[in-house]
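Quick log. Single chain, no ligands specified.
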Amino acid sequence: MVEYTPKERLARVFEGKEVDRMPAICATQTGTVEQMDAVGAYWPEAHEDPVKMAALAEAGHTVVGFEAVRVPFDITAEAEFFGCGIKPSTKEQQPSVISHVVSKAEDLEQFEGYNIEDGRIGNVCEAVKILSDKYGDELPIIGSMIGPFSLAQHLNGDSWFMNIMTDQEFGLKLMEFTTEFCTQYALKQVENGADTFAIIDPTASYQLIGADFYKTFVVPFHQKIVEALHEKGIPSILHICGDTTNGLAIMETCGVDAISVDQNVDPAAAVENVDKALILGNLDPVSVLWNQGEDNVEGVKEESKNVLDAGVQLLAPGCGIVSKTPTQNLQAMIEAAKNWTY
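-> predicted structure:
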């Protein structure tokens, strides 16, 4: 069988074509302290400076061994772009949203004429270009952003979940706004060289809002982004946190190419509950990859085999990698993927 480059291999998997073996990628955040120490690019600077961001993303390949590079490392740049308050990152902890800027539809008027190249999101796009210029012929360049539902929640605050139930007009207007922004942002990353795209929409959960609200406030908006990506020939991955088992069939109706499932999902059930979408996941990033330390290489190998035996098409962490995860545990997962043939 032909041996493919990492870029060719992942593209063929998305196209349903035969490959020599499984790609070894991570669609969620990849930064760790050991990588930061290895290349001298640290959070919080690597969240903000495009050169350091690209250097830390590159370490996921050169230090750890992932067969792709991916940015960014957090999901707050979009909310920061619109003026939400952000708790700064540390070397070990990601930034978080601490205040919100939209309470009614009229509040959206302040954002008219925004420039998608401004602020930290502009720096993410620049990091994509740096990585593409260096690795675009060989490796998948995975762009990423927060999804429109979770961005709406960042803008509106915790009242968002009540608002979609009591004020549908406002909820839909905010979703239209965030979806238009997300589409522009995704396409800018594609323009700069991203050839695969991950939509991280953690609170867009069937488990949280139920089927009816998911169909109204999530599916059509994810569909718009996915269709825009498909028009450019870009495959998409959707990650939603929590136990998404019962919602997977609805989730894939947006046309997404792959669904990343977290550790709360039984991987065999996930594979059974979708029609066309690939299932990506779902090693526990906390109890398997991180908190048992460097002595858990054999445990990682065993759990990797269990996930692979369940039928997932792409082995990966079930959520973002914890910053203090030992490199050798990630390498054990990568080796399990590389040794697996379909």
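The beta strands are 69-70, 86-87, 96-97, 141-146, 196-200, 236-239, 258-260, 278-283, 314-317.
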